[in-house]
Write a structure and sequence with these properties.
The chain is α/β, with parallel strands linked by helices. It contains twelve helices and twelve strands. The strands form three sheets. The protein has a six-stranded mixed sheet with strand order 6-7-8-3-9-10, with helices on both faces. The protein has a four-stranded antiparallel sheet with strand order 2-1-4-5, with helices on one face. The structure holds adenosine-5'-diphosphate and magnesium ion. Pfam families: ABC_tran (PF00005).
Amino acid sequence: MGVEICVEGLTKSFGHQVIWQDVSLTLPAGEVSVMLGPSGTGKSVFLKTLVGLLKPERGSITIAGQDITKLRERDLYEVRKLFGVLFQDGALFGSMSLYDNIAFPLREHTRHPENEVRRIVLEKMDMVGLIGAEDKLPGEISGGMRKRAGLARALVLDPEIILFDEPDSGLDPVRVAYLNQLIVDLNAQIDATFLIVTHDIASARLVPDNIGLLFRRELVMFGPRQELLTSDEPVVRQFLHGRMQGPIGMAEEKDAAQVEQELAELGTGASTGDGEASAAPMTPRLLPGPGVTRPPRWQAIAEREAELHQPQKKPEPEREPEQKEVTDA
Ligand SMILES: Nc1ncnc2c1ncn2[C@@H]1O[C@H](COP(=O)(O)OP(=O)(O)O)[C@@H](O)[C@H]1O
Ligand SMILES: [Mg+2]
């Protein structure tokens, strides 16, 4: 399940400052997408716009047949129930136990009796591995646990869409690995549409079906992970390889001449071939863990991955049928 989100020609400004313009993409139902971008490029603004907390100047966001940019506040309130959002810092109430934090949306938005609230809260706490920590206060637990508590809270209303704002920020690499596995397992279990904003390249290579990149007020690219990971587009390659050389600089933008020179030095200019992309091959996608039942789409992903990573089965470029011998594979 999960629902598709179709964004077309979206532009967001604050006063005279254009944050991004003409952003178009489709988040396919039930799939995991990652949005990458240097800090300050408006990734959080994008998430807030998707849930209707910020109004775009132009464009549309179509969810379940409705353009949510045109909705009145009370209809928007209904649409927001489709969303679960994991904010950057977990956004937990500091004086409330984890149990009460996670129960909060249920008590706000439903009329479930307390025993039903309890059943749901404990089910979600179990999903994210927090059983036993019900009485803890947010200040008494690690950053990783706070993220998981935020995630449990994002899950309690059984959302069709889950938005993650930098779920991996501030976590050590081991906790990031656990969180990534948790995200993939959850997607297989609840099959909602996921959008993860991050600048962690390693996670972006492992976790999603689709990757997008925001840079200089534009969506540079959005598409299936294999397209982005093998892309020749300089910004995409610089970002995915975490290099200093390329269009992205410390102060966000470099002048064109410098970029040209750096790319030439790297031998990755437009004229040269695909040297480095093949040196950093496609990372295999993270699959759901052994105990997790996989819906049919995961079978398809597993098969596609197996094909992508079989060395002898490299896709050959289409060739014209000529008199030359072509069957060397
Ligand atoms: N409510 C707001 N009012 C004015 N400017 C804002 C507001 N929210 C964000 N911005 C600006 O939008 C830009 C993008 O911010 P943000 O989405 O937080 O970037 P990212 O999440 O990619 O690091 C920043 O320059 C920020 O100052
Ligand atoms: Mg942000």
